[in-house]
Design a protein that fits this description.
Elements: H1 11-18, H2 23-34, H3 38-41, E1 44-49, E2 54-59, H4 64-80, H5 91-102, H6 108-118, H7 136-140, E3 144-147, H8 151-163, E4 167-170, H9 179-182, H10 214-227, E5 234-235, E6 239-246, E7 251-257, E8 263-268, E9 270-273, E10 312-316, H11 320-330, E11 335-339, H12 358-366, H13 370-389, H14 404-417
Helix pairs in contact: 1-4, 1-12, 2-4, 2-5, 2-13, 6-13
């Protein structure tokens, strides 16, 4: 979705914000908004990311200031003339701009996925019903059940809403968010940048952190569910107990447990399961676990009434939850022991716990299309990572890795851990 904004701020504000701007985005915008190709003509250099496992293209830093000066002149002009946000360019132009922003060539498949991630179109997968086949009465009597009110459940509801198909969302939780509603342990947060961890139908959004903590994510989910009409279709504290396909009637017979505890049978024409992967606690299975005499609980069932300050604490597992939780607990625990079966890899993550700077916030709020290209840049970087580090080379014979790129990433991870 395109942010409806105009450039606001004095010269100093604009210059300070541009000092933190990504010049790959600025050169893209100079061409998109003003037809200025000079930024494109500046040479790019390849820089190593993650110890050289991934190669990224950036503008040669000696030309950064020239690009920022051109961007300043353009934004100053747009501010003084009070220009509105222009309409999106043609599809062919967008694909051209994608390659300029990413510094990479894209296949047709990558263009289509990138177009969705760019989020210029609010509902890229919107379904238009064939009215010659789907009469109003037929649609009115077709009811869909969505199980779960997390990311998948909300997205399903939004697109059903757009298509005009009746639906009901059920969740055994007391609010929306799915795994983010349940996981409230200290410092729970995303490990994907907030601007990338957003629905195309509800971006841009005024995120407060580069990597949003759990309360901020739930706030975003609630915002989306309310704004797009999904909240009115949700039945909270309602659990699906069983489903059976009724061949004779071509419907699902669904047994539900209501908030009162009463069990009822209902029928639906279709069911979308959005229960996710992390909705139930996964306990390790070893002898004596539940004979432990101290306090015992799972991160997804965090006991906020328990004071763990000054205690000897053990954490079992080294997954993302532990990576987020352990540094917080270690600050006040008398002693912290982490039990791991398989060592996990970790990488440095700049700005992981940082609030979004006012300069970056200004760029998102005032520069046309900046937030779209910022989101796309995250996509392009991740795509590069998958291509370079996850490709299996059948001729590679070094134990512990699958290719040269994979080995370089492994060496970087090991070096960072040491």
């Amino acid at each position: 979705m395109i942010r409806d904004t105009r450039v606001r701020g004095d010269d100093e504000t604009i210059r300070k914000a541009l000092s933190q701007a990504d010049t790959m985005i600025l050169r893209t915008l100079l061409y998109q908004l003003d037809g200025d190709r000079s930024g494109i003509d500046f040479p790019l250099i390849t820089v190593p990311v993650w110890g050289g496992a991934i190669q990224a293209e950036i503008v040669d830093p000696q030309y950064d200031e020239a690009i920022r000066e051109k961007a300043f002149a353009l934004l100053k002009k747009w501010r003084d003339e009070d220009r509105p946000v222009p309409a999106p360019p043609s599809l062919d132009k967008i694909f051209e701009l994608m390659e300029i922003a990413g510094g990479i060539k894209l296949t047709k498949e990558e263009q289509q996925v990138g177009l969705e991630e760019l989020a210029i179109e609010q509902y890229p997968r919107k379904v238009e019903l064939d009215k010659s086949k789907a009469s109003p009465d037929k649609v009115k009597n077709f009811h869909v059940l969505v199980i779960g009110s997390g990311v998948g459940g909300i997205a399903s509801g939004v697109y059903l809403e757009q298509a005009g198909i009746p639906y009901t969302v059920v969740t055994k939780d007391g609010g929306v968010g799915g795994t983010w509603y349940r996981n409230t342990y200290p410092d729970a947060r995303v490990d994907v940048a907030s601007h990338h961890y957003s629905f195309t139908f509800e971006t841009p959004y005024p995120w407060k952190h580069y990597f949003a903590p759990q309360p901020e994510i739930v706030e975003y989910m609630e915002h989306c569910a309310k704004k797009h009409g999904v909240m009115d279709h949700i039945r909270f504290h309602t659990e699906v107990l069983a489903m059976t396909w009724n061949e004779g009637k071509s419907v699902w017979d669904v047994k539900l447990r209501l908030p009162s505890g009463k069990e009822v049978d209902e029928q639906y024409n279709a069911v979308i399961s959005s229960v996710g992967l992390f909705n139930e606690a996964s306990w390790p299975d070893f002898e004596g676990l539940h004979d432990f005499k101290g306090k015992l609980f799972h991160t997804s069932e965090w006991d906020h009434s328990y004071d763990y300050d000054g205690k000897r604490i053990g954490i079992i597992g080294t997954g993302p939850s532990n990576m987020q939780l352990a540094p917080k607990v270690a600050k006040t625990a008398a002693h912290l022991t982490i039990f791991q079966r398989t060592p996990g890899w970790v990488i440095p993550m700049p700005d992981y716990r940082s609030p979004i700077s006012k300069e970056h916030r200004w760029l998102m709020d005032n520069v046309p299309y900046y937030d779209n290209w910022h989101r796309f840049r995250h996509f392009a970087a991740n795509m590069n990572a998958s291509e370079e580090a996850m490709t299996i080379d059948p001729t590679w014979n070094k134990p512990g890795s699958a290719s040269r790129g994979n080995e370089m990433m492994r060496e970087f991870f090991a070096g960072y851990a040491k």
